[in-house]
Amino acid sequence: MKYLILVPDGAGDEKIDALGGKTPLEAADMPFINSLAAKGEVGMVRTIPPGVAPGSDAANLSVMGYDPAVYLTGRSPLEAASIGIEMSDTDVAFRTNIITLAGDGAYEDLIIKDHSSGDITTEEADQLIKAVNEAFADEKLQFYTGTSYRHCMIVHNGGTDYELTPPHDVLEQRVGDHLPKGQGCEFITAMMKKSYDILKDHPVNKARIERGLNPANSLWIWGQGKKPQLSSFYDRYQLTGTAISAVDLIKGIAICAGLSSVDVEGATGTLHTNFKGKADAAIREFRDGKDFVYVHLEGPDECSHQGDMEGKLKCLHDIDHKVLAPIVEALRADGEDFKVLEVPDHRTPLAIRTHSSTPVPFVVYDSTAEKPADESRQFNEKSGEIGSYYDSGFALADHFILG
User: Does the predicted model carry a pTM greater than 0.85?
Assistant: First the structure.
């Protein structure tokens, strides 16, 4: 049996008037997953445990079979593992976005305009991270370049007891209302403020402004945590596996779980990612003998953060046509028995442009145990609400893999 988990990040949503009262999953052109849903199981799953922030770290751990209440030590340590940073047990990793601030006056009065600096390229971002590293790095802390706007700061013998806010949760809001809180956090605030002075006139940003792009003019530091200790995915499920994602977080989870991680050329984590490349990589992994492939698509989440409804609909269409369909068709052509789980890691409603903890819909399809076709079973919230219910993502993962 081959196992495919396909995660359209942030695809879950709420009803939208502009879509005739439908959600994006209801309105999007996704005939392939709905054909599987008609012969499979649909339902809802709570991927975010009570009391846990609805981040992609907790949600993807849950969907991959790990209880976030046990295994989540922070988002950035997982990303650090992907970058190749060797953390000691006393190191603390922090997610470091380079973001777009807008407005005039004091740093505190600027507005958080864009958490991703217009999906800045990694090559541009690397120059900016080198500039802040030159200004701030010492024997206690260093910055490391990640991917696009997502980077990492390591503090040796650091603390974690700070209240730090994800920038995508506070778009269009005043900086001063969301600065770090907690004893000893002053060094973080000071670096964020000084980074604005360093970056706002950097040649990279001058060139971006000339091209009509958002400048990456400030650091935003959050997502702190210590070295993760995930149990082996193979020991848990007796499956060899691979994760395919453009996002360091997912790669880091895979590495920490003992899975392979495949980089796909042109994979960006946006609407414009290399969908075909991701599908081809998954097919190769299955044909090379892997039992399990986890394909993560960040695009729907990024579109929601940007408030881009049409982009989200297009991304859902492309995932269905360019990723799911060719993978399943290849498995069938190869004569494989296979199971598919398609599930968003969390909802990212367009109306609020950030994550929510509300349960999300899922589809489980088993090629060896097709149900009589029922076209009322579809991959969306409306259909899921009258189907099965799982109180955790890891319970759904166990059901999907173990039966």
Answer: yes
